[in-house]
Amino acid sequence: MAGVAFREATKRFGGAVALDRLDLEVGDGELLVLLGPSGCGKTTALRLVAGLEEPDDGAIEIGGRVVNHVEAKDRDVAMVFQSYALYPHLSVGRNIEFPLRQRGFDRDERRRRVADAASTLGLSELLDRKPRQLSGGQRQRVALARAIVREPQAFLMDEPLSNLDAALRTQTRADIVALQQQLGTTTLYVTHDQVEAMTMGDRIAVMDHGVLQQVDRPQALYDRPANTFVARFVGSPGMNLLPATLEQGAGGKWEAQVAGSALAVPETAATAAGGAGAALVLGVRPEHVGIGPHGTVDATVVIVELLGAEVHVACRLGDGTNVIVRQDAAAPRPAHGEAVRLAVAPASLHVFHASGARVESGAGVGHAPVPGEGATP
């Protein structure tokens, strides 16, 4: 096994910068998820490691060795594609065996490795079938088996669950995590699905427009996003972001004016943000917004979504800003078009500069209870 590193790696396609000075290390045995929207550069990063593209600047390292000019076949990495990429005329066993044949392994070693990989992924009874006789989940497991049979230094997985239905995605991502923990192989996993990222990764690297935005453990990303892009992208639904202006009210207390209403802001955050008149963006997770008479922000209910164990109430402020409130299914639900008041505990606020960067004040980590359920806004 070996770690993987990007050293100021840059990739351009014509005049477009697909990857901009990416500096990132994947530890030996770590499962790191590259997360971001389409076109953010995550697949380009994977292809640089695989040797399918070469960086224009910077370096790619595998196991401490710079591999910029090493051919793909000599990098000792295995890639799992979104499309499975199985040979339709070969049986499951022959598909799994194929990379071993290409590398000249003897027959006994090929049989041993195929049997071990098939057993690990529950494919032992399917070795004689053709890909067309398999379900989507089974095909994906064959693709995984073909990767692990090589016993590579690193796995590269490019959105391998995108073609599966929701229930099968949930099961297969659990299978992949269990398999990676069992093998201990360094894994770089690309996805645009933040639920996949949160549930699978040891760490998550969030990207946008070819630039690394933040890399950290899943819970740390959720609790303390570095900027408004990460705040909105990580979480389902994402963080509510409210444009605001900072003012000092009666008694010297700090308030943020949000759509004609006031929200209390911790003094440390207000000072770090620049004081009176500063333009801000306030962030609050849907589970930290309450609806009730103690609220200070006026809103109108746009839609109520029933999701079984919870309810999402979509509200609109006077300036057109949308706010999602996550409620327990047993909580009283407002009606469509109803005027409500939203309450937010100051300790649950995330404060960002107007530029989008987080205000580093030590305040607002998002752990406060929901107003109306034991908190006083």
Distance between the termini: 51 Å
How would you write the strand order of the largest sheet? 6-7-8-3-9-10
The appropriate CATH architecture of the largest domain is 3-Layer(aba) Sandwich
CATH fold-level assignment of the largest domain: Rossmann fold
**H/I helix tally:** 9
Measured on Cα atoms, how large is the radius of gyration? 25 Å
Percentage of residues in helical conformation? 10-25%
The CATH class assignment of the largest domain is Alpha Beta
**Count of β-strands:** 20
In short:
The protein is an alpha+beta fold. The chain is built from 9 helices and 20 strands. The strands form 4 sheets. A 6-stranded mixed beta sheet has the order 6-7-8-3-9-10, with helices on both faces. Strands 13-12-11-14-20 form a 5-stranded antiparallel beta sheet. A 5-stranded antiparallel beta sheet has the order 15-19-16-17-18, with no helix packed on it.
Description:
- The chain has about 375 residues and is an alpha+beta fold.
- It folds into 2 domains: about 5-230, P-loop containing nucleotide triphosphate hydrolases (Rossmann fold, 3-Layer(aba) Sandwich), CATH 3.40.50; about 240-355, Beta Barrel (OB fold (Dihydrolipoamide Acetyltransferase, E2P)), CATH 2.40.50.140.
- The protein has helices at about 40-50, 90-100, 105-120, 135-150, 165-185, 195-200, 220-225, 230-235, 265-275, and strands spanning about 5-15, 15-25, 30-35, 55-60, 65, 75-80, 155-160, 185-190, 205-210, 210-215, 240-250, 255-260, 260-265, 280-285, 290, 295-305, 310-315, 320-330, 340-345, 350-355.
- It has a 6-stranded mixed beta sheet, sandwiched between helices.
- Helix 5 links the parallel strand 7 and strand 8.
- Helix 2 packs across helix 3.
- The N and C termini lie far apart (about 50 Å).
- Mean pLDDT is about 90; it is low at about 360-375.
